[in-house]
Structure formats: structure tokens, C-alpha cells
């Protein structure tokens, strides 16, 4: 077991897969006197989330480790602070509320595809294109402003540094109570510098906003909790940093993987293109895109194969029972989503790109926690509907215009998210030419 635990730092997906293949769904062990439970069983996830809702598990042990970056944003806060913030922000991310930002998403996606058509390029760095596009959307949604400076173009480099450094930082805290930090001294220093740059940018944007629009910062400034209190300036910054970071990196990575996969699977690509061409004369509204059933299934299949969170972690606040077995207080419970996503018991073709996993009633035949692309329980992702709408708008806009081919094999690498090891270069032809 020790060798697998050590591999979690360098090859976490391989380690999680190996742990459960050798020892089963439910694995209790210790590392540096830290009690650990690894589980890959969806029924166990349900028990864990239910007990978390009753206060028997929490995320408190990583609070200090995450605080330099996220402060008391939703990704890190606890207790009454988290509850108040969640209640305040939930209405901003309902399906009806995010429809207000649909126009921004569509405009920026159309601008990007129009530019590519006008340039007449046949080779595209899809990674860089998506980073630029997502950032343009998010800056407008969050701050009500367009990109205005070269500094904003440098933010993705800072984000890459942050997410790359956060993973070993949080993992060593989980596995060894911080005793392994000295293995990443230089990486931690680079991360701290990038965090300072990133937070300073967000602070400067907040300071320039008059809260009169429908941008997220204005909505948060004007929001009130049940007592009528406003969000403090510190909490406003923490939430803005959390949303701005999470809203870029996870969405960019998922879309890169999506275009990579369809570029490698011609039959899937053709079926998606045919479905999208079926609404070519309609405006790409949220209602119209509900008809893109196969396209949505392919997006979910992308998230299954390349989940942006390969695992979720909780800590027992008291002794609990999971799967009929006792789990003592102070145990870090690690839900191995990656292993679940590729388990042949629940997926017909666990290691293949097979959108049919999410069609023809297959979803209802599986446990509801077999697939958790946006987390689960009380701490599920507040921005799920926003992310799904944004990705579907971009996918439909791009594939209305272009057919994509990928001729290289790209391996994943794990930071705080599950991303390609390098930029993905694709060949593009105009769809009307390819059909």
C-alpha cells in the first residue's frame, strides 16, 4: 500500500486505479499517522454526503492550506460563513439567472469563429483559443467589462502556475499533515507569487465597479443574506477570486478535451455536426440547445473520461459508518471519482469515448452518484448551470462552422484539475466544405 500512496503525488489517477483494483471499493490505511479511507463505491458516496449534511464530515482540515488563495470563498469557507454565502449566491446561478449572460457567451464565441474564418487558418492551437475565449466571457460576466490590457493576457499563465502548485500543496496536506511540503519549496514559492498577482488583479477590478449592472460583482455587492447584511469587502474578493479561477481553468480543460476527443473520433464528430446542423437556422438560445441531446451526451462523456476533480475529500468530525464499516474520527475520506468513472461495473466501455453511456436510459440504470462532474452533496458546484450553458454555446458555435481533426495523441497531467500535458493543435476545415 505504501508504494501506491507515494504514487498519489506523481501519478494520482494511476494510484487511485491501482488501489481499488487491488484492495476493492473500501480501503482504510494510514500514512504519516494520518488515517485515510479510499472509496470508489457510489453507494458509499451517498452515505458520506448524507452524513456531511448532518455535520458528521467536513472540509475543515484543508482550510488553512486553501486560505492563501481562496480565503473564505465557497470553495473553502465553513460553518455559518459558508451557509450564508451559499444562500446569497445560489439565486445568481439558477438556469433563469444565467440566461442573462447567454448573449455574452454567444457574442464572444461568434467573434472567435468569425476571426478564424477570416484568417483562413487550417491549423489552430485550440488550447490558446479557448483560454482567450473563456477569459473574455468571464471578465465580462464578472466585471461587466471587456478585456482591456496585456496584463489580462498574462493571467492564464498565473492561473496555470496556481493550479499546478495547488495540487501537491493540498495533497501533501491530506496525506501527511503538511510534512511533505519541503518537497515542493520552489513550486510553492512560484505559486505564492502567482496568487499575489492574481488576487491583485481581482482587487483592482472590484475597486473600479459601480454596482449598477448585472455583472456578478454588482450582484454580489447588492446581495443580502437573511439578516439583511451585505457581503463584506473581504468575502467579495474571496468569492471573486474563487469564481474567476474555477470558471476559467475547469471550463477550458473540459472543452480542450472535448474537441480533442471528437477530433480523434470521426463517427462521433459527424453525428454531433449533423445534430447541430439540424438547428442551423435557429438562434442558439438555451432552449434551442436543449435539442442537442447527443452533443450534451458527448460533453458528459468527456467529463467522465477527464473529470476536472479526480477525487473529493472530506474529514470525519466524529466516528461514522460507511458501507457498514466503522470510520474513526479524524479520518480523511477520499472519494475516488476517477476510479468510479472507469469502473466496468457501471460503464459499458469504461476506457472508451462512448457518448451512448448517457443515452437511451443508461443514466437511470446507474446509481445517481456514479457520475459527479460537479461534485455532490451540500458542496456541489454552484456554477454548474453556467458552465454547462457556456460550454454548449461554444461547442455549437464552433461546430456550426468547423470540422476538427486531431492527428496527435495527448496524455493528461494532474494539477488541481485534470488537463492535457501540452497545448492541443487541431486541423480545421469549414463545415460546409467538409460535408
Automatic annotation (TrEMBL):
Superkingdom assignment: Bacteria
One Pfam family here: p450
InterPro entries linked to this entry: Cyt_P450 (IPR001128), Cyt_P450_CS (IPR017972), Cyt_P450_E_grp-I (IPR002401), Cyt_P450_sf (IPR036396), Cytochrome_P450_Monoox (IPR050196)
Swiss-Prot/TrEMBL keywords: Heme, Iron, Metal-binding, Monooxygenase, Oxidoreductase
Homology family: Belongs to the cytochrome P450 family.
Name by which UniProt lists this protein: Cytochrome P450
Amino acid at each position: 500500500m505504501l508504494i501506491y500512496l507515494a504514487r498519489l503525488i506523481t501519478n494520482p489517477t494511476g494510484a487511485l486505479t491501482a488501489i481499488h483494483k487491488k484492495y476493492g471499493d473500501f480501503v482504510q490505511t494510514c500514512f504519516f499517522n494520518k488515517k485515510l479511507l479510499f472509496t470508489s463505491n457510489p453507494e458509499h458516496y451517498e452515505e458520506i454526503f448524507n452524513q456531511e449534511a448532518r455535520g458528521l464530515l467536513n472540509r475543515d482540515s484543508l482550510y488553512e492550506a486553501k486560505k492563501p488563495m481562496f480565503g473564505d470563498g465557497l470553495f473553502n469557507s465553513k460553518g455559518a460563513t459558508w451557509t450564508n454565502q451559499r444562500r446569497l449566491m445560489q439565486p445568481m446561478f439558477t438556469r433563469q439567472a444565467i440566461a442573462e449572460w447567454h448573449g455574452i457567451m454567444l457574442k464572444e464565441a461568434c467573434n472567435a469563429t468569425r476571426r478564424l474564418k477570416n484568417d483562413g487558418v487550417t491549423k489552430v492551437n485550440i488550447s490558446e483559443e479557448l483560454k482567450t475565449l473563456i477569459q473574455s466571457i468571464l471578465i465580462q460576466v464578472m466585471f461587466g467589462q471587456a478585456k482591456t490590457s496585456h496584463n489580462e493576457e498574462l493571467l492564464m499563465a498565473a492561473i496555470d502556475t496556481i493550479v499546478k502548485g495547488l495540487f501537491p500543496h493540498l495533497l501533501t496536506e491530506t496525506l501527511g499533515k503538511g510534512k511533505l511540503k519541503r518537497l515542493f519549496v520552489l513550486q510553492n514559492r512560484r505559486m505564492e507569487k502567482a496568487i499575489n498577482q492574481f488576487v491583485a488583479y481581482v482587487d483592482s477590478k472590484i475597486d473600479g465597479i459601480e454596482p449598477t449592472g448585472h455583472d456578478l460583482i454588482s450582484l454580489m455587492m447588492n446581495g443580502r443574506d437573511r439578516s439583511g447584511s451585505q457581503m463584506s469587502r473581504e468575502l467579495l474578493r474571496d468569492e471573486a477570486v474563487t469564481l474567476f479561477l474555477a470558471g476559467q481553468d475547469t471550463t477550458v480543460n473540459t472543452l480542450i478535451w472535448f474537441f480533442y476527443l471528437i477530433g480523434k473520433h470521426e463517427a462521433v464528430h459527424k453525428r454531433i455536426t449533423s445534430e447541430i446542423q439540424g438547428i442551423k437556422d435557429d438562434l442558439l438560445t438555451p432552449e434551442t440547445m436543449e435539442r442537442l441531446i447527443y452533443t450534451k451526451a458527448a460533453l458528459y462523456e468527456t467529463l467522465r473520461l477527464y473529470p476536472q476533480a479526480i477525487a473529493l475529500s472530506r474529514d470525519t468530525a466524529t466516528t461514522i459508518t460507511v458501507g457498514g464499516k466503522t470510520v474513526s474520527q479524524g479520518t480523511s475520506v477520499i472519494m475516488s471519482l476517477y476510479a468510479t468513472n472507469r469502473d466496468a461495473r457501471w460503464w459499458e466501455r469504461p476506457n472508451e469515448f462512448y457518448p451512448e453511456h448517457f443515452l437511451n436510459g443508461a443514466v437511470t440504470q446507474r446509481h445517481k452518484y456514479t457520475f459527479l462532474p460537479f461534485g455532490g452533496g451540500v458542496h456541489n458546484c454552484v456554477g454548474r448551470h453556467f458552465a454547462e450553458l457556456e460550454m454548449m454555446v461554444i461547442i455549437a458555435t464552433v461546430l456550426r462552422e468547423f470540422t476538427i481533426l486531431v492527428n496527435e495523441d495527448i496524455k493528461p497531467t494532474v494539477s488541481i484539475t485534470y488537463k492535457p500535458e501540452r497545448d492541443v493543435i487541431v486541423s480545421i476545415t469549414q463545415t460546409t466544405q467538409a460535408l
